[in-house]
Amino acid sequence: MDAGVKRSYLRLSLKSVVIRPRALSHLSTSNPAYGMKKNTIVEIISALLVFLFIYAALSKLMDFDRFRYQLSQSPFMTRFSGFAAWAIPLAEIVIAAALLIRRTRMAGLYLSYFLMLLFTGYIFIMLKYSSYLPCSCGGVLSGMSWKQHFVFNLAFTVLSVSAIMIQNKHSNIKHLVK
User: Fold this and answer.
1) What long-range pairs does 138-145 form, CB within 8 A, spacing at least 24?
2) Which of 8, 65, 131, 137 has the greatest number of beta carbons closer than 10 A?
3) Which domain holds residue 124?
4) pTM value?
5) Would 42 be classed as within a structural domain?
6) How far apart (Å, rounded) are the C-alpha atoms in residues 151 and 55?
7) How many CB atoms lie within 10 A of CB 157?
8) Per the structure, how many domains does the chain have?
9) Residue 174 above 60 pLDDT?
């Protein structure tokens, strides 16, 4: 084989290795095997978070005096209990609303992650450093032990960050294919 033929053969081989956007079409968000599964997972996680936040906010608001009192009994929340008693349920409702709207879902996922991280961190600190553990949660959640509540919150924190990662990966591929 002569040198000129080898060079053109090499160029032809290298051109076939270069990834073109059409080669990524199987990753397209319109592909049911990829996009629908990822969207469905994010929507299921978002729905679970919405349910959790609405349930938690309503149980706190329905027994508001008890919730505020229990917050004031917490060794780390005493100074902020009046503000936190209103801010926590309000934040939960706002985050749930953000998760319901497709345009604001990503912001809602980040806010969910942040709030769940705060709640989980608070429980961790209470378990580690406090001998008095007042429960300020309402409804079914108040029946959990502090350790169970920690695991429950940790699971929802992981769900939140998982949805963020899936959504970010989904968005990056969507932009790559365009």
Assistant:
1) 138/56, 138/59, 138/60, 138/62, 138/63, 138/66, 138/67, 139/55, 139/56, 139/59, 141/56, 141/59
2) 137
3) 33-177
4) 0.74
5) yes
6) 18
7) 20
8) 1
9) no
